[in-house]
UniProtKB/TrEMBL annotation:
Coiled coil, from the record: none
Pfam family, one: HET
Highest taxon, organism lineage: Eukaryota
Domain Heterokaryon incompatibility: 66-212
Protein name, UniProt field: Heterokaryon incompatibility domain-containing protein
Amino acid sequence: MAGPGQLSLSGVQDAIHHLDKNEPGARPLLQDPARQIRLFTLWPGTQESPIQGVFSVATLDDGPDYQCISYVWGDASDTKDITVDGKDFKITTSLFSVLWRIRSEQEYLAVWADALCINQDDHEEKRVQVDMMFDIYSKCSNCFLWLGEVNLLDGELSLDIARYGLDFIEYLDDREREDNGFSTAEGLVKLHLAFRSLVKCQWWRRIWTVQECVAPHTAMFLWGPLTISRSPLIQFRENFPNVTSARRRWTAYNYKGNKRDFEAMFTVMLIVQPLSMLRTQIKSRPQALMGGVASLSFLWMTCDHQALDPRDKIFALLPFITAALTNTNSSNYNIDCVQVYSRVTVDLIQFCRSLLPLMGRRQSEMPLEEPSWVLDWRRQEVAQHRESSPFIQTVGLSSQFNASCGIPKLHYQNLISGDGRRLRLRGYFVGTLVRTIMSPAEVSSGPGHRFDYSHTLRNLIKTWKRHVEEDAFSEFRRLDRPLFTKAAIAEFSEMWNGMEKAREYLLDLSAPEEFGMKKKVTMLMWLQSRVMNIFLTCGGRFGVGTHNTKEGDEVWILCSGFMPLVLRPIKNNSEQGNNNGDVDDSATFALSGRYDRYRLVSECYVQGVMHGELSIGSNHCLRTIDLC
């Protein structure tokens, strides 16, 4: 299946159309699509008999008894026939497999599955039914969470080993169960094989499975012929620290050159943690509605999930984030992806009452062609690289810095231009980047390997120290740079020394906490959340921004922005730059800070401005600029 963002809108529509190759009248008509659903009654049968059943229509408010199916659609062209009302009916092989697994030999089973029970070609029905999905799943008597078949093509894996992994998860949830050798070296190898296969199940990557997993009162994971109830699996992260003796023995074994044995297990923890968090909230409230910052954090935590239609990156999460959205409160498939994402971005800015939604973009983000300020959830799969969340680290700095202190708050009305492509903000110019220092390290050690941003940061610090030792900034002393002094270099060097102390503190758990260490650790986590560059502004200020900052970019402090932003100027009204949004390298910047239109690069740290030093008591002339 194509990755998210790889299909055009027409391609998405074609793919969805091919999922439903049945005649228009194959399903009964819904008289009230806002409250009625179709159910498929699966007839009993043996393993060898064909799958048969009938459709019926039920009203949710009447409390019908049915079970839901959560699964990955799979390849739309790979279909099998079932019999519905005596006629052939095509469904994907993935759905066929789960129907075959859950079918009883004696009892009829009423089930609901999206591709089976929603007419995918009827856009209005689809919109209404999609908006009902949280209701549909929350009112079912049980949900089958189909992970797919156990991949026995991996020569090292067997059903017994896969079952061993699930037994371990259940053991952590109830330690009165028998310890089946889980804490031995042999047990760790078997667990590695089981979790390595478990984490590859595509079900974890699908965006709709988030609400399908957490909404039902009762749910059961199916992995081929194996089963495990929902609670132990999604609470795996919370339960794991209970096994302290096993962890000590594993650690002693693991440090003998087998660090890979922990990787898949920890990845499963990262995947299930948001599901556990949401399920806990839902148990305490009917719907786990989140506020602005929580909504943003949740969107970033789930952004690596796949969706055939990239708009579903938002629509599938609406039940949890509606409280923060005013312009995007239903699954409107009549507007394009850029419109959906831009509306959500503006809603989040207004709800957060800050420019926080513009900050903390991930290293692997695949930006929209335009506009640059729009949060883009069409991205690569991030979880497989165990990439950290820069947004979470940036949130940590929101209580530490307040660069816009002393200037008026942003006016949150009329933020968007008439065409919806430009974000209108106010602020003042700090300086143009005249020099950048980059880390020589690679971003990744190779496809599928962990991004080691802490390593690139250490290399960047070494590069900075080498520049200082070699007096590499002497050329700037001849220029009129009033802030460029040896004291400024020493102050910036002291910041990096603090980061090295913070790293040592994190590595040595027995080290006493020094005054201000928590702030240093928070700053360190932000610095090593992506590949960073050091830069020097035209006024002589040192700063740190993401790897894509370059000479000619400008630093701005904008209203309601707790950190400065690096912006890339668009030279004039007719020049849009190249396909990457860059300005012509030959451009002069005599009019730095006087452009009207910019593209967003990233948030940044700039020496001597982070606490409002430039804003308080100054006579800065605030200007209105457009982010394009």
